[in-house]
């Protein structure tokens, strides 16, 4: 059995280089930026009023002023500046050359064209040209575009961006016991949850899931499943990974020419994880227990999907304090389902007493996975530990 770190390195090594496509900005939210986006203009493009009021010269603050013009957003004033004068101005209007501050209208007294400044106010209320960004500035690739990025790119006058193609991920669950949600299970049957949960993880990582028909526990059915996965950028099987007589995934994949990278890792849950490449396409074989499948999805599949889009893995452990003591760990790195509460300095992490890898109800309740290294000694209440936050 190899370590979790070693396994992650080998999984990420299976990632093909991301492929780009150009999309209009309106469709780019959530996509991974693959090429730098370059600002085509400077923002603000001119010295811009930050308040409704009057533009004037700081040197003239003391004396009475004469109002000689007006500037509104989209309607610059184009006259000649004269000492001792002010320009009526509105937020977003260009501050005319020759005037260096804007006084808020609440801070003046106006009678016809005569203006008296009652209070200078703090600051000039002028947004200086280029104070946000300059033409040529770039938004670097390797980030998922959020709402603020979309707004920034629009302001940069970038109408379309090069993003990574979303990897198509074939999700193949297998087992004679499985029926679809909404069907009535016969005796001995259960409803298939894994493929839907894993498909949701695929989407959350930026991939496009393609859920395949459930494979039955025969080599022929699994072969048909792999055939249906053709054309996907990544194939993810779920179940049939262990040592039982009906666990056929590895055997069938090998028959189809799987170049195996590893099988079994020193991790709990998720020991029977398998990875390799099938006709050049990366393949992950997740264990069937629902929590094991999801934990493997978080630790290996989602990072792989992100790296296939040129993104970082997204695995960023954080620190918390233990709410209660924990016994020593065994030989496998352990990911315990836990909740988080507010603590005095760091968050307080409380593990569920039951860590059964079949309990989806606890997985759904969990805020975090506590990461305990193999062979970790007993831990006391208040000890600082690492955890991975969970999406809800
Ligand atoms: N003798 C041993 N038995 C087992 C070992 C072992 O080392 N020696 N490992 C255990 C561990 S750990 C795990 S994890 C499971 C993994 O088994 P498989 O990957 O072969 O998964 P299955 O046997 O197909 O199913 C396990 C469990 O999960 C349920 N399941 C499967 N698919 C789905 C699905 N799509 N939706 C919902 N639930 C699913 C299935 O009904 C079983 O209950 O093996 C242990 N055994
Ligand atoms: O590793 Mo299994 O994934 O412990 O339930």
Automatic annotation (TrEMBL):
This is Molybdopterin molybdenumtransferase. Coiled coil: none annotated. Residues 170-307 form the MoaB/Mog domain. It catalyses: adenylyl-molybdopterin + molybdate = Mo-molybdopterin + AMP + H(+). Keywords: Magnesium, Metal-binding, Molybdenum, Molybdenum cofactor biosynthesis, Transferase. Its cofactor is Mg(2+). Catalyzes the insertion of molybdate into adenylated molybdopterin with the concomitant release of AMP. Belongs to the MoeA family. It comes from Paracoccus spongiarum. Its EC number is 2.10.1.1. Pathway: Cofactor biosynthesis; molybdopterin biosynthesis. InterPro entries: MoaB/Mog-like_dom_sf, MoaB/Mog_dom, MoeA-like, MoeA_C_domain_IV, MoeA_C_domain_IV_sf, MoeA_linker/N, MoeA_linker/N_sf. It comes from the Bacteria. The keyword Transferase applies.
